[in-house]
Amino acid sequence: MTELGARLKEARVSKGYSLDDLQEITKIQKRYLSAIEEGNYSIMPGTFYVRAFIKQYAEAVGLDSNELLETFKSEIPANNTVQNVTATTNIQQPQQRRTLAKKTAKKSSDWMPKIIVALFIIIIIAAIWFLKQHNSSSEVVDEPKQEDVKVESTNVKTNSNKDKEATKTETSAKEKTTDKTDSPEEKTKQKISKGVLENDSVTTTYTLTGAKDFKVKVKVMGSTWVGIQDETGKEISSESDSFKADQMYSDGDEIDVDATGKKSVRVRLGASANGTVYVNDEKIKFAATPAERYTQNIVIKFEEEK
Q: What are phi and psi for residue 135, nearest 5 degrees?
């Protein structure tokens, strides 16, 4: 245990906090809090977060975080986030390219037989139409006899009656459509409440109503750690192909999670300035600015339609 870790642990114990209590207060995972006390910074998601986590720990137990960081700066590893992110990105990019290439090839092989069948059907229809047109133009038109004229006249009258009936049917259909248009059913529209900053000063809470779907998206605009949990505190990375827990994300990454059926979702950004959160494609913001709180949470509570 380092001197810094001992100082923090002593302050925590004097406050009567367990590591579980401190996890609830700071929203930092228990294993990271334990690692800070033991001076084991190697398990952190990146040195980028060491100072931020230590600062939150210190503030939660009533210590002056700035003074503490300055006093024990020799124990804290230097910030080499850019190197870590670059290394992670270099490893991930080839894997992502291979995965994308496999998916593209699979889709092409699935669609090719359908395209061939469709083209074959179109060719057959075109050939039949061409033969009919050719046969029609080759027929010799005989001069009609008087009897033929009478029959045609009768057909004209019959067709005229059919046209009148068709007109009446169309008019009736239009009237029914107009009646439906004049009295439309009220449609429930999606509504997201105004964000409320909680007492911990790092969590902004929203309420989603009037929606059938509950889809969360995070667009990353820089280097940041992302955590997404449901109402039970469980990471829901297993329900999304684009999100993996305890992983650094870089500029251009996009995380999509379908949370339909969940009562609430908590999105935590290690660097709140480097990510934007969307709910059903509607952008929501942190109540506190990134300058005020570096690491922040957004909680979205979902109220189902009644």
A: -65, -40
Q: Give how far the C-alpha of residue 46 lies from the chain's centroid of Cα atoms, to the nearest Å.
A: 25
Residues 235 and 269 in one domain: yes
Which is more confidently placed, 147 or 213? 213
Helix ranges, the chain (H): 3-15, 19-26, 30-38, 50-60, 65-71, 81-138, 146-182
What pTM value is reported for the model? 0.43
Name the residue with higher pLDDT: 116 or 234.
116
127 occurs within a structural domain: no
- Dihedral Cα 202, 204, 33, 88, nearest 10 deg: -100
Is the Cβ–Cβ distance between 78 and 48 less than 8 Å?
no
* Residue 158 backbone dihedrals phi, psi, to 5 degrees: -60, -45
How far apart CA 81 and CA 275 sit, in angstroms, is 16
- Spatial contact of 26 and 57, defined as CB atoms under 8 Å apart: yes
Question: Based on the structure, what is the number of domains in the chain?
Answer: 3
